[in-house]
Specification:
homodimer; alpha/beta; TIM Barrel; eight-stranded parallel beta barrel; two-stranded antiparallel ribbon; about 15% strand; globular
Chain lengths: ~270, ~270
């Protein structure tokens, strides 16, 4: 599993405060903590407390601060193309790599972001959203997935850089949605050869629910069995990580040893 | 999920001792504990410490003792037809119901046990084992599954009473096996209409492994997403139960409330 750590986000109070105060330490500590807990990449989101006119500068500052401590891929998490371009440019300085998080399947937006993916040789998350909002059925999600893959091909973005996201809604909003997402994950993996990556923003599932960690880790395991290969989540949730590492073992993607949990953590700390 | 509690088994030291000493209390306590933790049925296995010549009497004693405290279905767990018949007869006294655990797909055994299933209107677990041992591939497991379903039809055993078991081997024996089992579960559910039940003996997966509870609950969730509807396991493992109840929620089989975990437990205690 490819884990994108979600914790550098202005929506979290400590990071939001650090961004406003231009205080590097909390951001850099959070980057390092997530990486040593197993994150392969870090999501970077300035949040909504930064005034719109200062978003670009805030994104540049945030990316620069994280780049001081790691060369890991950075997932630039922002809906606007100017802030996205600024974040990508800083993340890719000196050979760094980035992921665009995210485009939708809306024709205008898709083309702009796919061109950025080509320009920066970046990964790109494509959400199951179009002109009509979040696609509710597996068929509609697939239709948008196909549109995103077609756009990648037109724009010379390799499929290996495409991460399709079926969009998870909160469980307490629509209980039929998780099953539809599982079905969609399996079908996304069959859309092309090589297959696109499939990613979810896991924490959204349990928004507003009790038992959030339990719900998150239970669904992550199910989604992995369906074919999920990437997740944006909190790598500091140890039980989530244990469930994920165990699922990889059961899917025969890593080799069993009695110390497989600590072996995973050690391997990440050595990277 | 239909849970068959695995704990009344002579392989567990306290139950083994109770059987040899004809001491009712530990057996009846274990029956009641499992039922109030959520077991829908109870597996009954006299274990291997009882001499062969006394197996039938031991099974009759064990079933009678459990029947004194519950009318729940009893899963008679024994490979021999005479002990099986004796257990079924006692379990079904006064309108009680039973499950045959288990037959294989071997022609001679299958016919004998399927006739018992018909005679006692019992459920029957059919293992993916034939003359050549445990079927290693999904195709071979399916072939045996079809043979078991055909035998049920010939013997007038309703498909609703058939529980196909793909057989889980210990993870540290064959790491490819869990993935094959997941694939088989999905295919078993498509073998007939109505579909047979699909059951696993979960604990076998983690025999000899470290992190047994974590491995068990992670696989149970994956197997449920693949279509598993019945599990023989330890209902006293609270984290396993929490994972199972959460998986049912995510598969839209129960309705979400903030107190869904305690709601499950309360509903079982009222039964």
């Amino acid at each position: 599993m490819y884990v994108i750590g979600e914790r550098i986000n202005g929506m979290f109070k400590n990071i939001g405060n650090a961004i406003l105060a231009k205080d590097k330490a909390p951001v850099q500590e959070m980057a390092e903590k997530q990486l040593s807990a197993g994150a392969d990449a870090l999501d970077i989101n300035v949040g909504t407390r930064v005034p719109k006119s200062e978003r670009i500068a805030a994104m540049e500052w945030l990316v620069d601060v994280v780049r001081e401590v790691t060369k890991a891929p950075l997932s630039i998490d922002n809906p606007g193309p100017s802030t996205m371009r600024a974040g990508l440019a800083r993340a890719c300085v000196g050979g760094g790599t980035a992921i665009i998080n995210s485009t939708t399947g809306r024709a205008d937006k898709l083309d702009v972001f796919m061109k950025l993916a080509h320009e920066f040789d970046a990964g790109i998350v494509g959400l199951s959203i179009d002109e009509n909002g979040v696609a509710p059925s597996a068929d509609e999600k697939l239709e948008i997935g196909m549109r995103i893959i077609a756009s990648a091909m037109e724009n010379d973005v390799p499929i290996e850089n495409v991460f399709l996201d079926p969009i998870i809604l909160p469980l307490n909003v629509d209980q039929a949605a998780p099953g539809i997402v599982l079905e969609t994950i399996t079908q996304f993996k069959m859309l092309s050869d090589p297959a696109p990556h499939v990613v979810i923003g896991l924490s959204n599932l349990s928004q507003g629910a009790s038992e959030r960690p339990l719900i998150n880790r239970t669904f992550l395991v199910m989604a992995m069995a369906a074919g999920l290969d990437t997740s944006i989540h909190d790598p500091l949730d140890d039980e989530l990580t244990n469930a994920m590492v165990t699922a990889e073992l059961l899917l025969n993607k890593t080799i069993y040893s009695n110390s497989y949990l600590s072996a995973y953590r050690k391997s990440k700390q050595m990277e």
